[in-house]
Queue: 4 jobs
Job 1
Amino acid sequence: MDDKIPNLREYLNGVRRKLGLAEDVPAPAPGTEGKAAAVLLPLIERENGLNLLYTRRSDRLVSHRGQVAFPGGRFDARDPHLMAAALRETHEEVGIPPENVEVLGSFRGLRTRSTNILVTPFVGIVHGSPTLRPDPKEVAEIFEVPLGALDDPRYRGYHQYANNGNATQHPAILYAGQIIWGLTYSLTLTFLRLTGSARSKKRR
């Protein structure tokens, strides 16, 4: 990779050291495949530094409709491991081919509250200039947030979620009209905490 941002490779190597090896994440145990999913946290180099890519789920989906998420989805029988599931789903949902992603590592996953699915995250830097295209069946919108904004308290707030007449308040990242909350918020904060120096890398 021809690093456009000074010290980008050093930063990425630092991220890699703070994550678990992606190759060490096993495939789901037999009988648990239906409750396993994987997502990719795609880092993209832009003029303003490193951005993290998110999707907003289609309002036509059965679960988590309209919510912000990382690209990814359920483990499939054709996937040799969870990393393959994350890369395949990312390609299907937003158009980033697996060969354009350098996976840096993984960290501990979380279970969804409503469906009890274990979501395993992988972090990767996107190389080249793939054309981002949302799959209209699953993705309503693709957007990016600079790492510096994700770590900026000015963009922190709360989201009030109404379900069956009950309203609950959840911590959230509020950026450019997008609301990052729930499991995606938790994964984002874990990534920022693990990598420590998650700040926007700008040109000099």
Job 2
Amino acid sequence: MPVRDDRAPVWAIWLLIAFGAAQPLAWLIAGGAPQRAAIVLPLLIVWIVLLVLASLATRRIVALWQQVTQTDRAHKATLGEVAQLQTQTAMLEIVARSVDVPLAFQALASRIARLVSCDRVGLALLSEDGQEFQTYTARVQDEERRSRPRPEIVFRMDRTLIGTVVRSREPLILASIEEAAPDYLDANVLFTAGFRSALIMPLVSKGRAVGTLNVVSRQPDAFAQVHVESLQAIAEILAVAWVAQQLQMSIGKYRTMEVMSEVTLSVAAEINSALQTIIGHCDLIERSYADPNLHRDLSTVVRQSQRIADLLEKMRVAAHERMREVADTMHQEGIPSSPEEWK
């Protein structure tokens, strides 16, 4: 319950004192009270005592009121920190179960909206080539009917607010979307949908921006620096989770390439072994029989076997080169090739 700025007890004390002082004074002026010093002096003493007590009471009440106000503000700040920690914990639990950033975003959109009052929460994730954004939206005011999020609009880096934020890696508070709508495509989309202000947070991991977390409101000038601070940790977690998801996908792709290359080498070795056996037997048969027609047929079999062996050799060379390319790419991307490199 917020503390009201109410100092009624202080005013009540001073009103009582004023009334108590005014009554004897009125008596003196009207001649209704004795004009002797023996009566006036005690009245003055009483007034002075009352004034001193009132001053002390006023100071005490004001001090207590300020203390209660500070306690209430600290309580609100603590509640905000607790809400942030709960959101971060929930996000970490979801990411730990499955590295799926859009799914985690959809599950936590309502919590984000409780931290920062808004009408809609959005997520923009940068593609691997760094040229496009896939955007996701969570309608926090209505119950989410989708089992998993789907990309809604694809934006380019150019002429978009999210592209500007990713390039600068700094949060952007947009007090009026209407002013930015003529110059930015995503601002125009938001303004057309009825939104009037926005806060765009960059998702930064290891100095690299990989997307943005967006909150929008139908009210103008709805966001301030305090909201940036509330969403900072969540944006960092989302950035780390997205980089981890991309890393996991890259590892899976490269591991598949490695397995395919290894299978190709293994099969090529088995086929080559069988071909060498065929060529050897053809040579033995040719030596055992002097039939020219048989020699001609055997020569054809040997020639085709050698052709297949040459093709297998080319496959082995290509597979080795592909594995080398995969290893180089993994090294450039910072993907560890062994468990020891994770340390």
Job 3
Amino acid sequence: MDTTQIIILAAGKGTRMGGDIPKALTQLGHQSMLEHVLDTVESMNPKHKPIVVVGYMQELVKDHIGARAVYAPQHEQKGTGHAVSCALPFMTPQIERVVVLYADQPFVSSDTLTSLVGQKKASETSLAIATAIINDDKLFSDQFAGFGRIVRDKENHIKSIVESKDASLEQKEIREVNPAYFCCDVPWVTTALASLKNNNSQGEYYLTDLVNIAFQESHYIDSIQIDEREALGANSPDQLRVLESYL
């Protein structure tokens, strides 16, 4: 992991959680969701501190986490692609690849991070991603209906990721979802992020559009499959209760 930088997106307000704190600081068990992610990252003894992208009430996040991270401010919430762009200037020059994680997805494991980076190193691709197949109907409707869907071509290669808000009825039935854990080469991701467009229903720059860019450039998109538990996130009190049941 010496030449890999972890980026954790933690800038959101979390309006649907019902409180007035950054969503990253929502308590899950005895600590915040962000602390769960940091514990996992630190268990791998990385050479470089993770970069945490902060926005809403960022001073509160900094006070809570302290010296465990480097902080990259996202002054306007323009989407996940924009958030990663805000983090890039804070990397050290020798970094070759980045892994993107999320403060509101606290169950990602060190095994998954190791596997994702290993898959990226072993391939000639510009990026590797993690996907999860959700077989349980209730879990799918309650927790994953809002996730992007993995669209594959006839050869079973990943062709694109369609955000739920932009998906057709047929695409909404796809059970392979995108937890949005990405590992990318730095030169490629820097150029690709600069070319992102925000012509979608949210008017945001989606990190997931990197997959479409890679496909258009005829890059093979490598992937690993992870357990549904590791893909779980919390955007509401009901979803948080599901996470609590997995503790």
Job 4
Amino acid sequence: MKNIVVATDLSVTARNAYRYARALSKTLGVGLSIVHVKENVMNITDVVRTPFPSNNDLELIKDIEELVTEENQAMGINASEHEVKIRILSGDPVDVLASLSKTEATDLIVIGTTGLSDVLTKIFGSVSSKVSNKAHCPVILVPRNARWKNIEQILYASDHDSMKAEFAQDIMDFAVKMNAGIHFVNVRNYDPVGEIKQKDIDWGELFVTSNSNLPYETSTIYGNDTVKELNEYCEGKSIDLMVFASKHRNFWENLMHKSITENMALSTDTPIMVVHKDDKK
């Protein structure tokens, strides 16, 4: 990893995401770029389009530089805003960030989970959730109330199909880099009568290539309310980062059902990393 990209719309939520990304970049010793995507219009309904005011790029850059300076000072970082690269792009934020994720200059995207107002987020869905589904690099969703702290405990939650050694290895490497413990959690619903029984995880197969010095736990949690079960596990184990990985996006798309999106991506205070292994560059 060489560079982290943090998206901003200059909102309070975006400021919080910047603080998280700045601290993470310092911890990992990698570069940080802050990106603002100008969107000229936003669809309110199929027939009504409300224009957003157009800002001069120089004014935007000045506003972002002020944001960076203020947040660095608040974090006690003695660094100029010019240490953070600033980019102004135009277009649909989801499409632009998804395209940016394909470039070699983007290894990880950090984005707040509620960049728009709460009302609009509930109506139109979270831009950050859509970015995490389309991106071709890992995406960390930073909830509004999340605060940076050293990542000491990571939860890797998966169903049977994506709990594979090839998927888990990168997560284990990341945990070693962060000097963190990792919790491998197999999420299972109770097997309904008449449906095929869900397969058990072969934990031994999962750790064939694991680091012997990596502290880890394995668990299988049952329940038809996936979000509730995961949140309770996170609270009980003091999890600092949740990770979801899927080769074909099945597990994450299941989580991104509207009601689960609101509960997990918008309500939890635990940052979430989304990884799509089939999109690995």
